[in-house]
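Box 3.1 A note on notation
Throughout this textbook, protein chains are presented in two layers. The first layer is the amino acid sequence; the second is a token string describing backbone geometry. Keep the layers aligned when reading.
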Amino acid sequence: MMSREASIGIDGVYYNPAGVVFLGDGHHLSINWQLAYQDRTIKNDYSLFTNNVNNPITPREFKGEAFAPVIPSFQYAYNKGRWSFQGNFALTGGGGKCTFDNGLGSFERIVAETAMAACGLARTVDGVLGSVLNQENMKMFSSDQAFGAGGKYSFNSYMHGRQYYFGLSLGAAYKVSDNFSVFGGVRGIYATTNYYGYVEDIKVGNMPLYMVLDPTKKDAANIELSCDQNGIGFTPIIGVDFKTGKWNFSAKYEFKTRMRLKNKSVNLVPSIGNLPANLSSQMTQILTQKGIPAEQAEATAAAVLANQTVQQTMLGLKNQFDTELDEAIGEYADGKKIAADIPAYLSVGVGYSPIDPLRINVGFHFFDDKNAKAYNNRQEKLDHGTLEYNAGVEYDINKKFTVSAGWQSTNYGLPEEEATTSKDKRFMDDKSFVTSSNSVGLGGVWHFNKKMSFTVAYFHTFYQHKKTTESVELIPGNAINYSADYSRNNNVFAAGIDINF
């Protein structure tokens, strides 16, 4: 039905806890299962991607598949007189897994830009080396057998994420009068996540990148992310429900949940700081092989690396790489505590029953995302919190069968990200993104008897596209654009049993 905020039912333990007290005395139990399948698509357009020798295409599509075969939940209420004591278990903060078999665009961007920078450094080093040796057109590192000159690259990449937020709620509703009730409760949340990904076997031109970082270690240039996170939070909840004639009005407010996720990571990052020493060693070795005496070869290598232009180029390469690496996996550094608050949440619902078999609902949700602290205060970049509107209808065909349908619109306060938008204003991130959407659902209930019902449902979410463009200036005065088109596709099947005893 997708608009349950003003409904009186056992699922109200989550949607409308104050209204559950009107179910009548006794035990009420609902056991539910959902299966969710989602794919996430990011289409990146970046001219440097044409340098990928294995896939020289742009725009490039990076597709992730998320599958959660078992999403359980249960709701329980014991009503006695004016009181209703309630409990709920569900994945209230999200849950599932997603895999990008070919990694992410942001990962490939690091490789593509590093390849260009490495070729630039190779040209600079060879130019200075030629001056020191008084030889024109010196090509030691910029030759086709080494880095080359065009920024060609190859690599392997993969990304997998898993996230579960388990929530257990306890609370009580009180019937102030025959028409008005109130609720108070608390939800405890345990969050557990895992992220694993890598960028490995990086080759620039015909030279494996590890050769200039540490020739003794083939993984010296690999980037590997392996991070587990966990945290605990508590959410106070209040609610009200008011019935009058054919109408029902309800509201629920969940306070902000303070969450801090503790990282336990075993990440691997390249040692770019070793670049000067390894360049010197390789240069000395190659010069010696060319017949230059060892002492002269060492002196020549030292002179090249002492050159100011070479030093500035190496420093620029290191700073660029470190900055991009921090943006990619800095959030997952070992020992860090990451802010990941769950926003305060307000829901309001109105229900109307013009005839006994028919129930019509409308609802509204507001998530106060801008005041829920996230990593690097990412929430401040949003234009506003999330707004949701929904409507639903439920009809009893007869005493045995009920059918329902519903719709919900979700509008995230995502900022516009044009080419000129500054880095500190950018919100979208291909490791974790959202786009506004519309969802439609259908459902049915088979009432076995007065004490037991079987429910089934399906809904599909139609996600909008969110496009961003970033101006990248790798060479002063020569800007190119890195653009992204984000979208999703979502299907959920569900079944459950409701029992009254």
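The chain has a mean pLDDT of 93. The radius of gyration is 29 Å.
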